[in-house]
Amino acid sequence: MNALLIDDSRLARTELRHLLQAFPDVTVVGEAKNAAEARAQIQALRPDLLFLDIQMPGGSGFDLLESLDVAPQVIFTTAYDEYALRAFEVSALDYLLKPVQENRLAAALEKARNQTAMPATPDEAAAPPLSAQDQVFVKDGERCWFVRLADIKLFEINGSYTQIYFEEHRPLIPRTLQHLETRLDPKVFFRANRQQIINLKWIDTIEPWFSNTLKIKLKQGPEVEVSRKQSVLFREMMSL
């Protein structure tokens, strides 16, 4: 695995680099001290894994992730424990408190290896695009459904799976949002943020939210906060 270290503290980066020497399958390909440097490094180096601090000058670790269309796997490294819940809401692999302990680092890297080792299934590799009127087979445990895509209001990351919202059902499927996005009609389905794809036909209300973002309420469904970047795209798409 190729790793990028993102932390405004040079000492913290040095300590983490030293700890990672105990794991020969991990190669540190670069370092960044703020979000702007990190974006450039991610684009240039295409790392598999980010070790990401949260509080940095010029933008937090969460701001960085929100600005990326597709993010590598993320392990947060921080001195503060109050962001743990939010970290897992953005699908972080783990949340390590400084000073990082080697046993916790080993456990986090094992999660990263398991994610990296998950192969794409043949139908994920070459699946054709779908229209909103297509019906898809959904299986979750012992339950099965045959549902029109037009009736699905929301796709949402849930751990290593994606949760589907239709009628009163919330099944989980072993697909990534990236894969689903390649198959769904972009005129109907919109990537609201890193965790959610919404069906535009199911929008009930839209309201301005913090930092020039939008909050969307789905009919008979949850509220979805649109990221800053996607809020700009949404306004451009929906404007005359």
From TrEMBL:
A molecular function GO annotation: phosphorelay response regulator activity
InterPro entries: CheY-like_superfamily, LytR-like, LytTR_DNA-bd_dom, Sig_transdc_resp-reg_receiver
Domain Response regulatory: 2-113
Keyword list, A-Z: Phosphoprotein
SUPFAM superfamilies: CheY-like
Source organism superkingdom: Bacteria
Domain HTH LytTR-type: 138-240
Record PTM 4-aspartylphosphate, positions in chain: 53
PANTHER family per the UniProt record, alphabetical: STAGE 0 SPORULATION PROTEIN A HOMOLOG, TRANSCRIPTIONAL REGULATOR-RELATED
Protein name as annotated: Response regulator transcription factor
Species of provenance: Hymenobacter jejuensis
